[in-house]
Amino acid sequence: MPALVLLGAQWGDEGKGKATDLLGGSVDYVVRYQGGNNAGHTVVVGDQKYALHLLPSGILSPGCTPVIGNGVVVDPAVLLSELSGLNERGVDTSKLVISGNAHLITPYNITVDKVTERFLGKRKIGTTGRGIGPTYADKINRTGIRVQDLFDESILHQKVEAALDFKNQVLAKLYNHRAVVAEQVVEEMLGYADQIRGYVADTTLLLNNAIDDGKVVLFEGGQGTLLDVDHGTYPFVTSSNPTAGGACTGAGVGPTKISRVIGILKAYTTRVGAGPFPTELFDADGEALRTIGGERGVTTGRDRRCGWFDAVIARYATRVNGLTDFFLTKLDVLTGWEQIPVCVAYEIDGKRVEELPYSQTDFHHAKPIYETLPGWSEDITKAKTFAELPKNAQAYVKALEEMSGAPISAIGVGPGRDETIQINSFLD
Ligand code: GDP
Ligand code: IMO
Ligand code: MG
To answer: Which parts of the sequence bind Mg(2+) (predicted)?
Structure first.
């Protein structure tokens, strides 16, 4: 079992941080392969709560080496402040390894993110404003700045100037924004170089050697399947590939090396930012899910939009990721509902549709078709085995499993590490 991918099966915030942390004690490496500090992963260890944005959740497991892969976009200021925040709380971060090929989020990428959203007005994506999209745009445009550029002042200078030549025209002429001074950007970036240098290595070599040596490597996705730039609800997506294939490109590991793909699946659905969401609730049930589930963004503090479980999405996640397992989270949040509706298919223009429509227009018109399952009222947070769950909770899990296309191998019944029912091991 050398390499596993763990990713979000919905629109993010499914509980990837908790799931990664849970496995952290048994794996040798935890690798972020895409995204950046748009992520917000909450990990609860005993009475301590950690909010991680850029660092892999494995950083909290002492035996584990955390890796930031080439597919990640790194804001150096955020990186250093997250590291020092953990150090102050006694977490050893010295094992961190960062790819020299990862791209850097520069101050002007953050500026462009913010002014673009403002310019879009009511058509905005609702980004996290962290410069994610513009940094990936620079990468694809071949005008990006990489971590390794920090260590060659002359190259850094040339690249920042080249990027700003064009961007300053756009900022000034289109957005009526003052020009960014290349010299200041270079100076700020160079200020980070010495603090980051010691972490940088050839991470593809490191990870491939580790896998060949039989070490266990866990690739931790940020965001989720429906936020994937290729497979998500485009254009209301992030600018990278959280889906399983992203682990290969974002870490330089071939698909033949990956043996397991675990989809983290919330027992209901949430979304932050704009875009279609067929099962979204605007009533007291939606408010109750938000309150009981604590559905407030870890990164931006925005309220999350909430709705019932959507099996069409779960099936889609199984398909595009080749999921071998699900980790169902937050089952405890549903305790107390007499009846729990679950979306089993959509009605689109009068027709029943079982699979996620590829057409954006159809998806915007999709109305959920619900089946209602009986709820339970018993406290489930202390349950350690599937058999200890109330019969109706067991039936809810079994129904979701049948609809979603992959076995549910673990169930979250609370935010803590130990508030988990493990049904099948992820590490066989
Ligand atoms: P991530 O971005 O996928 O890591 O998820 P977030 O951390 O943004 O949001 C998930 C939230 O749910 C966090 O506050 C977790 O502590 C919490 N959480 C995770 N699993 C469970 C669970 O099984 N039950 C409950 N009640 N909370 C959970
Ligand atoms: P984790 O890893 C939920 C959403 C933003 C916005 C869209 C694009 O905690 O699950 P971006 O800043 O990435 O360009 O914003 O994606 N988004 C997330 N939503 N969880 C996340 O991360 C997210 N990261 C980005 O709200 O709609
Ligand atoms: Mg999150």
So the answer is: 13, 40
**pLDDT (tens digit per residue) in 280-315:** 999 999 999 999 999 998 788 889 999 999 999 999
Ranges in the chain annotated CATH 3.90.170.10: 3-91+202-422
Q: Is 412 annotated as a binding residue?
A: yes
Contact 10, 226 (CB under 8 A): yes
Active site residue 114: no
41 belongs to the catalytic site: yes
* Secondary structure element (H or E) that encloses residue 110, with its range: helix 107-120
Tokens representing 289 are: 């899910």
Cβ neighbours, 10 Å, residue 206: 19
Q: How far apart are CA 121 and CA 110, in angstroms?
A: 17
Q: Which amino acid is at 50?
A: Y
Main-chain dihedrals φ then ψ at residue 126, nearest 5 degrees: 80, 45
Express each pLDDT in 6-62 by its tens digit: 999 999 999 999 999 999 889 999 999 999 999 999 999 999 999 999 999 999 999
* CA dist list (Å): 275 to 109, 158, 199, 278, 301: 23, 38, 37, 10, 18
Mean pLDDT, to the nearest integer, of 125-142? 97
In DSSP notation, 289-341 reads HHHHTT-B-TTT-PBPEEE-EEHHHHHHHHHHHT-SEEEEE-GGGGTT-SEEE
Strand runs labelled E in 130-221: 200-201, 217-220
| 238, 240, 306: residue to mutate for ligand 2 pocket, most atoms within 8 A of CB | 238
Which atom of ligand 1 lies at the shortest distance from residue 41's CA?
Answer: 4
DSSP conformational letter for 256: G
Burial string for 300-324 (b: 16+ CB within 10 Å, else e) reads: beeebbbbbbbbbbbbbbbebbbbb
Q: Give CATH 1.10.300.10 domain extents, the chain.
A: 103-197
Question: Do 53 and 81 form a contact (C-beta atoms < 8 A)?
Answer: no
With a CB cutoff of 8 Å and minimum separation 6, the contacts of 104 are 73, 74, 75, 76, 135, 144, 145, 146, 147, 149, 150, 189
Class of the CATH domain delimited by 3-91+202-422 = alpha beta
User: Does CATH number 1.10.940.10 belong to domain 103-197?
Assistant: no
Known binding residue 302? Answer is yes
